[in-house]
Design a protein that fits this description.
The chain has helices at about 5-35, 35-65, 65-75, 80-90, 90-125, 130-155, 160-184. By secondary structure, the chain is mostly helical.
């Protein structure tokens, strides 16, 4: 049976991606404008790590088997119900993690590299393209290499990763419920 593309989901993803990109780009440029060289590279690493983690989650969700989570949920293990919800919506979860967050952080990483290179060229009073090429090459290698390792880890540890995300969702869900109780 073929699944049809859900147009409202596609529109939602487009809007979330665009808004995320604007927010991350703005935050990145604001922080980088005031940051020193070390802080700028730290910000860059944060974007790479966010992309890596969400890429791993997306791969883990697409490759995990539901069966262990049914057993965990039956035994009332924290996060198992949330993990099952992720798996039942694997296509959307993976799309959000790898396409929205992963691609947006990839784009922001590229623009962050450009801003860092421009900043360094100003610091060294040079217009040398070498700075841009070295930083760009190093970041590309780091990003693609870490994602290759991350995907292998996600495939080999998909149950553990999905359960960790489920537990995190459980904690945030509990915090949300407590906040709602205090308001009501």
């Amino acid at each position: 049976m073929k699944k049809r593309t859900n147009l409202s989901w596609v529109i939602r993803i487009v809007l979330i991606s665009a808004a995320s990109s604007v927010v991350f780009s703005f935050a990145s440029s604001q922080f980088l404008g005031r940051a020193g060289d070390v802080a700028a590279f730290a910000i860059l690493l944060v974007f790479i790590l966010i992309g890596l983690v969400f890429d791993m989650i997306g791969v883990a969700v697409m490759s995990a088997n539901e069966a262990p989570f049914h057993s965990m949920a039956a035994h009332k293990q924290r996060g198992a119900t949330e993990a099952l919800r992720l798996l039942k919506n694997a296509e959307k979860t993976s799309s959000f993690c790898t396409d929205v967050v992963g691609d947006v952080t990839g784009i922001i990483t590229g623009s962050t590299v450009a801003l860092i290179a421009a900043k360094l060229m100003l610091s060294f009073s040079t217009q040398s393209i070498v700075i841009q090429l070295v930083i760009s090459g190093a970041v590309t290698g780091l990003t693609t290499g870490s994602k290759a390792v991350g995907k292998t880890l996600a495939l080999n540890n998909n149950t553990a990763i999905v359960l960790r995300v489920g537990k995190l969702m459980h904690v945030f869900g509990a915090l949300d419920k407590n906040r709602d109780r205090k308001r009501g």
